[in-house]
Amino acid sequence: MSNTETVYPGKYLNVLRKGRWEYTERAKSSGVVAIAACYREQLILTEQFRHPVDRIVIDLPAGLVGDSNEDENEAAQSAAERELLEETGFRARHWQNALTIPTSPGLTSELVEIFVAKELEKASAGGGVGEEDIKVHLVPPTNLNRFWKEQRTAGKLIDPKVYVALHLLEYRAE
């Protein structure tokens, strides 16, 4: 393999070149976490506007590891706990680091650690921090197909990690 060259060092993303390949990496975090969780037999999903795709996206509660100046050495599970609480207002008693997946391996070096959170309790309002403006959806498995159709009809995108979460939680759309 050839050496890696930094083409552009950004505040949040770096653009790198390795041989003929150009790709991105996160500049200020050590990883990404996503949380697969249910509350009272309902899948917990989040909804927020995503600027890169210029659309609203339905996804899992998720966020960056070590992206704040307060805790640059944050552990992945700590980030998952923090993000679940910030975005949804839920806390979990039990956590399992289920798997690590690439987000778009032809474009970025980013890997996502997906955690399964169990035994949840509502602790706060959620909704994100700052300008995140996150909406929380609690969807029963029997309503998943209708929910997907309604969201797509409304022009929203469904993040593929949601389907991974369904598998991890052993949900099956009826």
From TrEMBL:
Belongs to the Nudix hydrolase family. NudK subfamily. InterPro entries: NUDIX_hydrolase-like_dom_sf (IPR015797), NUDIX_hydrolase_dom (IPR000086). GO terms for biological process: nucleoside phosphate metabolic process; ribose phosphate metabolic process. It comes from Polystyrenella longa. Its cofactor is Mg(2+). It catalyses: GDP-alpha-D-mannose + H2O = alpha-D-mannose 1-phosphate + GMP + 2 H(+). It comes from the Bacteria. Keywords: Hydrolase. GO terms for molecular function: hydrolase activity. This is GDP-mannose pyrophosphatase. Residues 25-164 form the Nudix hydrolase domain.
